[in-house]
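Quick start: what a row looks like.
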Amino acid sequence: MQRADTIAFGERTISIPQIVVIPKRQTTFRFENFDLKNLEAINVQPVEDGLIVQNLRTEARTYLAKAVDDPRESRMEDYLVRYLIERNEIDYDAHADLLYKLAGQMIARLRSYLTTDAEIESALLRHGRQLAEFIFSQMMQHYKETPLAEEDYEVRVTRGFTLLKSQPLNIAPGQKVRDFRQAVVPASETRRQVFGGFKKCCYPLQKFDSDPERRLAVLVEAEPSVEKWMKPGRAQFQIEYRSGEGYEPDFVVETKDRSLILEVKARNELEDPVVQAKAAAAAKWCKTANVHAEAAKMKPWQYALVPDDQIMGAATLDGLMAKFAR
């Protein structure tokens, strides 16, 4: 009886070689030069000493006084720059010129409707973080990142294999398990549902982050060549696409002649630097796994980044792999 259970469990899992992929260098990034837009929306006011603010709903009062220990800056721009450099995305040494340029444009806006330096300083003391957020949101529209390529990753191979495990599922009391072939309306509610009805999935229940993921599961289940598939749990693959940041694939599929890692992304996300970095790291993992698989006489691995609009009724797994395999 114990042997039968062991065999059944083995049939419901997928083994992967123990390969660690880590970046050899940091991702490079920069902010393009630009000018602030929509400054006319800025109309913050100085706060007078002794001003009392009363909440109309709760009648709670807050006393706003200009504290004598508020840190003062020698330049008006520094009231904004000190908040901007708190952001991990901003390297002061690399972006100082842009920071002071943008901060100067914000100060010019304040000068256009405030009368004195004292009023401007008061407005900056009380609203500096808010104004810095306004600047940062526009900076991120001009953020450019150079993703890592396959050659930028280091690979470490250890002996042996590990078994993939399914993601833990929480089913709320009274929640029904949905047939995975049935779409959820609205589609945005897909991630809240628990799906069942699988024949080839390693586990009886799965969740999907999006309707395209659900549709891919329908496609995979219908493929005659597919033996088993699953959505792996967290930290199963040791693939770092950035230093300290791991990549977790959407699907792992085992067919009669190969093993696949599949990632589903919206068409407008395909060129995102993070998506591209993950794809490069996963492709590197597969190439190393294939060397290991050949020596162990196991199935080769392939990775594919699949656009969500390509997962249609007429699509096939072979067709998607032919178009999108890395």
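That is the whole record. Residues 28-145 form one domain. The mean pLDDT is 82.
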